Amino acid sequence: MKFEKKDIEHIANLARLELTSDELKTYGEQLSAITAYIDQLQNAPTGEVIADAPLHNIWREDEALDWSEEERERALSQGEREGGLVKVKRVL
């Protein structure tokens, strides 16, 4: 796929980038080369390729488990509590 200048300008605008005309040309060429390579990969013969590992879902179903009163008290005794829940430090 050949990217034109207006395509690169649109992508740069979406990314809130201010590009010079040289950068527009360079990125246009690079993106065109990347999509050409992806097209080559799409057309690669893979019919006889054998999967290395069987495909299966490794995730288990999410189910709530009941805690004994002792486990609940032990968990709730750790750190601060807020509204019956354990308050922890912010992760993100």
Automatic annotation (TrEMBL):
Q: According to the UniProt entry, what is the EC number of this protein?
A: 6.3.5.6, 6.3.5.7
**By its UniProt entry, which SUPFAM superfamilies does this protein fall under?**
Glu-tRNAGln amidotransferase C subunit
Pfam families per UniProt = GatC
Annotated protein name in UniProt? Asp-tRNA(Asn)/Glu-tRNA(Gln) amidotransferase GatCAB subunit C
Q: Name one GO biological process term.
A: regulation of translational fidelity
What keywords is this UniProt entry annotated with?
A: Ligase, Transferase
Task: Please name the InterPro entries in this protein's record.
Answer: Asp/Glu-ADT_sf_sub_c (IPR036113), GatC (IPR003837)
Q: Which gene encodes it?
A: gatC
Molecular-function GO term, any one: glutaminyl-tRNA synthase (glutamine-hydrolyzing) activity
